[in-house]
Write a structure and sequence with these properties.
The protein is of the alpha+beta class and 199 residues long. The protein has a single domain, classed as Trna Endonuclease, Chain: A, domain 1. 26% of the residues lie in helices and 30% in strands. It has five helices and ten strands; from the N terminus they run H-E-E-E-E-E-E-H-E-E-H-E-H-E-H. A six-stranded mixed β-sheet has the order 1-4-5-7-8-10, with helices on both faces. Strands 2-3 form a two-stranded antiparallel ribbon. Strand 4 and strand 5 form a beta hairpin. Helix 2 packs across helix 3. It starts with 34 loop residues before the first helix and ends with a helix.
Length: 199
C-alpha cells in the first residue's frame, strides 16, 4: 500500500541514481559586498581600534513631499539633492585631514573618467591645496582588485581628457597606484597604503 501525505499526494522517494550537478568552488572573498559596504566596515574596524575617525558623508537632500499611511510610518514621495556632493568619505588620521572618493567599474582595461564630476575634482584640488590627504579607491569588480590612486593623478587625467583619452588606462593605475590588501578585518586595509604613501 503506497504511503500518502496528509494532502493525499503519494510519497515518491528521491532516486539515488540521479547525478548531482557539478558545483562551483566556493569563494568567500568579500562575500558579495559592495565597495561601499566593505569600506564602511573597514572604517568601523579602524574606529573600534582607535586608529582613525573616517565616515561616509551624508548626501544633503531636500524633502518635498511625505505621505503618512500610518501614524507610525512616513513615506518620502519626493526629494531633491540640495547641492552636488563632493567626495564620499572624510575624517582624521594621525592628525591629518583625510578625504577620498570610492569608485567601482566592471571595465577590465581602463577606468572611465565619466565616473568623476567637475565639483568632485575641484574639491580634491582644494583638499590638496590645504595639505590634506586626498585619493581615490578604484575597484575593478571583475577581479575584486582595489587600487589607491592619489588625487593628483585623477585631476591630471580629468583635465587632459579633452586632448587625451576619456578613461584612465589600467596600466597607469597599476604603475601610479597601489594595490590595496583585501581580507576579513578590515575588508579593505587602505590605511596600510596611506601609511606607506603619505607618512
Amino acid at each position: 500500500m503506497p504511503v500518502r501525505y496528509p494532502n493525499g499526494k503519494k510519497f515518491v522517494p528521491k532516486s539515488t541514481t540521479n547525478k548531482k550537478k557539478p558545483t562551483k568552488p566556493l569563494s568567500y572573498s568579500n562575500r558579495g559586498m559592495s565597495l561601499e559596504e566593505s569600506i564602511n566596515e573597514s572604517n568601523e574596524f579602524y574606529l573600534s581600534r582607535g586608529m582613525a575617525v573616517i565616515h561616509k558623508k551624508p548626501t544633503p537632500v531636500q524633502i518635498v513631499q511625505v505621505n503618512y499611511p500610518k501614524r507610525s510610518a512616513a513615506v518620502i514621495k519626493e526629494a531633491y539633492f540640495k547641492q552636488p556632493s563632493t567626495t564620499d568619505y572624510n575624517g582624521v588620521y594621525k592628525g591629518k585631514h583625510i578625504d577620498f572618493e570610492a569608485k567601482e567599474s566592471r571595465n577590465k582595461t581602463s577606468f572611465p573618467l565619466k565616473n568623476f564630476h567637475d565639483h568632485q575634482v575641484e574639491h580634491m584640488k582644494n583638499v590638496l591645496q590645504h595639505d590634506g590627504i586626498c585619493f581615490v579607491l578604484l575597484s575593478f569588480s571583475n577581479n575584486q582588485e582595489v587600487y589607491l590612486l592619489d588625487a593628483s593623478h585623477i585631476i591630471d587625467c580629468y583635465e587632459r581628457q579633452h586632448i587625451d583619452r576619456k578613461s584612465i588606462p589600467r596600466s597607469i593605475i597599476e604603475d601610479c597606484g597601489y594595490l590595496v590588501e583585501t581580507g576579513f578585518h578590515p575588508r579593505i586595509d587602505y590605511l596600510k597604503i596611506v601609511d606607506q604613501v603619505y607618512f
